[in-house]
Amino acid sequence: MRIFLAGATGVIGRRMVPLLVEEGHEVTALTRRPDRAAALRASGAEPVVADALDPASLAAAVREAAPDIVMHQLTDLATGDFAANAALRRQGTRNLVDASLAAGVRRMVAQSIAWIYEAGDEPADETAPLDLAAPGERGTRVAGAAALESAVQEMPEWIVLRYGEFYGPGTWYAPDGLVADMARAGRLAAKDDVVSFVHADDAATAAVLALTWPADCAVNVCDDEPAPGREWVPAFCAAVGALPPPPADAGRQGWARGADNHFARKHLGWAPRYPSWRDGFAGLAGDPVTR
Ligand SMILES: NC(=O)c1ccc[n+]([C@@H]2O[C@H](COP(=O)([O-])OP(=O)(O)OC[C@H]3O[C@@H](n4cnc5c(N)ncnc54)[C@H](OP(=O)(O)O)[C@@H]3O)[C@@H](O)[C@H]2O)c1
Fold it and tell me: Residue limits of the NAD-dependent epimerase/dehydratase domain (predicted)?
């Protein structure tokens, strides 16, 4: 198939390119940066330089590529600017959906997040309502992801991947990443908030499988073991050479409940190579530094 991959140089996109090429797909890979074109070409994709926030140049890029499927792995998180990321989710997605519809594309597979659900006692499955009334910074994040999801649903066929927290080489949770730096600086608290993780390699595999998943569904893509900080933080600290922090006495925020991956695992045939962050974190120390 002909695939247009927006976000091809990101932490998931760059893992997807070789997987897609290996499966025989023709991949057009979007970047804003001409200096990244050679690496994309070397990994088997046809690079195209355009900004997703510039509707005309994005529309031209999609039209020229004439893809069967558009993969949306756009985020703006390299500097941890959540407001910029929410703006990209909102406006970049709007532009990408418009460009795709104008080019006659049928299917879009898009990256969302698995911590946008309302408060609850159990890990959320995909039927749980979104936390649209959340205030403050969380409200901005939820609204950005919700805007992305609702724009993607305008496509004739859509799949929304609600990813858990990425870890692995090139992520914030790599030994050279932001969260590892926080841990070594003693600024990572072991709270009761529950997190669902997913290794970046497993996130990429799910996106490739989603090319052929039944249309029109949101899917939690996360590992089997949602866990409170008081469990995962000490294991993460050990993996990245930080001293474990004392348990924090904060209580769980209701929305910090983790996500249930039953649908992806039992009905869509996704089997993560790292079913638990426990195994994945243990391998972090040996991972190559990628930043
Ligand atoms: N679920 C999660 O836990 C989650 C999700 C996403 C990110 N993160 C974290 O955020 C960190 C940064 O993510 P990242 O490495 O993927 O980088 P990023 O800076 O978020 O960029 C991701 C992709 O989006 C593209 N992009 C961004 N803005 C664009 C625009 N206006 N037009 C066209 N393309 C645009 C980038 O392309 P160019 O820069 O080449 O143009 C890149 O391919 C990761 O290390 C990860 O840990 C976590």
Answer: 3-216
Asked if the 2-166+198-224+258-272 domain carries CATH number 3.30.465.10, the reply is no
The atom of ligand 1 lying closest to the CA of 177 is 45
The ligand 1 atom nearest the CA atom of 165 = 3
pLDDT at site 115: 98
Chain-centroid distance of CA 26 in Å reads: 22
Alpha helices in 66-158 (DSSP H): 82-87, 93-102, 136-152
Q: What is the pLDDT of residue 71?
A: 98
**SS3 state of residue 40:** helix
Name the CA dihedral angle for 153, 171, 195, 286, rounded to a multiple of 10 degrees: 140
Ligand 1, residues 4, 5, 11, 33: which to mutate, most atoms within 8 A of Cβ? 11
Q: Is the CB of 13 under 6 A from ligand 1?
A: yes
- In whole angstroms, what is the distance from residue 67 CA to residue 57 CA? 16
Ligand 1 atom having least distance to the Cα of 80:
10
Query: Is any ligand 1 atom within 6 A of the Cβ of residue 52?
Result: yes
Report whether residue 7 contacts ligand 1, using a CB cutoff of 6 Å. yes
Q: Which residues of the chain have pLDDT under 70?
A: 286-291
Please count the other Cβ atoms lying within 10 Å of the Cβ belonging to residue 63.
Answer: 15
Q: Is the CB of 267 under 6 A from ligand 1?
A: no
Ligand 1 in contact with 291 (CB < 6 A)? no
The span from the CA of 125 to the CA of 190, in Å, is 25
Q: How many CB atoms lie within 10 A of CB 24?
A: 7
